[in-house]
Amino acid sequence: MSHDERLPRNRTYLMCPPEHFTVEYAINPWMDTKVAVDAGRALTQWEMLRTTLTGLGHQVHVLDARPGLPDMVYSANGAFSVDGTVYGARFKYPQRAAEAAAHQAFYTSSFAWRYVEPQQVNEGEGDFAYLPGAYGGLVLAGYGFRTDPAAHAEAQEVLGRPVISLKLVDPAFYHLDTALAALDDRHVTYYPDAFSPASQRVLAQLFPDALLADREDAEAFGLNLVSDGRHVILNTEATGMARKVSAAGYLPMPVDLSELKRGGGSVKCAVAELRA
């Protein structure tokens, strides 16, 4: 990865406060129902993440939390938007199913978006990433644990952008956004062993200059990051990842999200990007 000037680009995001956040069921290896969540601390940490983003000049819309949906704080999973078109989510687990309607209501309340309801199971930006500067606009899509691979073809028809299917093989990294992140419009970072050997070859072909992470980075949720092209917001535990992005010319901005990690998510899970 070359070290040319890393320039930030103003972004628009959607977040949902963890007002009802608990770990009352386990649908990924990180969730432990026996350890209580500190609700006040979770809200404080979330607010710090939000103010970090707004402090960088980004716009953050806030989706109202709904009772009975403790995972709504992971707003990245609710939809995936490209060029003003929104491909809605359809969650694998019934515990999260109603989140999709809350996100749909947000998009359909505004004339700015064309919302398309999905037929296939997919979990929004949890399993989709977009790189507008790569190959004219490229969607990377994960499958293996949550999103049905048939959703990748459906997303391509909805969005009119090429979609590259990548197979996730490690249950610890059950969503694409735990194993891969866009650092800017053209560059990615990822943990190779989270993917099948064939998907590793695909990524190496598409992104020969990618920033490669190791298992320690991935287990610290260091790939579950948000970047504006210059500033890389990632959780404080991911010290090794912070050093790597810094060496690559980006500016790491650590935020403590230890409570949200109890539910199997970190910075990126809590932040959906709105691409008009």
TrEMBL record:
<dbReference type="Pfam" id="PF19420">
    <property type="entry name" value="DDAH_eukar"/>
</dbReference>
<dbReference type="GO" id="GO:0016740">
    <property type="term" value="F:transferase activity"/>
</dbReference>
<keyword id="KW-0808">Transferase</keyword>
<protein>
    <submittedName>
        <fullName>Putative amidinotransferase</fullName>
    </submittedName>
</protein>
